[in-house]
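Good morning C.,

I know you're traveling, so I'll keep this short. The sequence:
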Amino acid sequence: MSDSALVRVTVEGGVAVLTLDNPPLNLVTLELTRRLREALDRLAADPAARVLVVTGAGARAFCAGSDVSEFPSVADDVIRKKLAPENQAYSRLDDFPKPTIAALNGLAYGGGLELAVCCDILVAGADVRLALPEVKLGVLPGSGGPVRVLRRVGEGRAKELMFTGDPIDAETARGWGLVNRVVPPGHALAAALELARTLADRPNRALQLIKEAADLAQDTTEDEAIRQTLALSAAVFRTDDAREGVRAFFAKEAPRWRHR
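The tokens, ready to paste straight into the viewer:
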């Protein structure tokens, strides 16, 4: 599977790679947003894609944020023309039913960082810089940053990022909990793919239900989350892979997952 420019998609060995390809900085445009949403819809329904890696083309940027040159054309109705469809696309990634990994290279600024934190796991090159610089344009992060970044790093650090608009480096981001792993410059995609292949070898339905259970903690009360998690446990115990896992355990052999 492949897409034309702006968003490229490949699927191999259970791992889908979605590449933002709008050189040189992979800026978010109205058209890129549309193609991103379409690609995510297709991949969510594709049983061959068990894990999703999101990255940016080239070495300069994962994504440096919105294309500011489009602002004058959307300023009169920014929600309808830009932010509503952008939030729909980003939420599609945030709610993606399979594990997602962001492989960060170069800059992850503004809408680029907002997109990255929609992924479950973030892998960053050591030279990556991350920022929410919207305040320097007189606006605020409008595609989930105030919510999703705050959930990862806490109120104080999120406000510091948004109030100053200044970038932080990859090691600081790891210390804050904003990214999971820091790897040598230029190796983020390779490291993300290695992790993705490991996850693609895990039973797919179990991974999906684990993700759903973990996300419940963000979306509802503790008691309700635990109650709903019990229903997810009941569902996973009925899968072919759960039966295979138990069989393989007692047979002392590697399980042969069917990913359903």
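Safe travels,
E.
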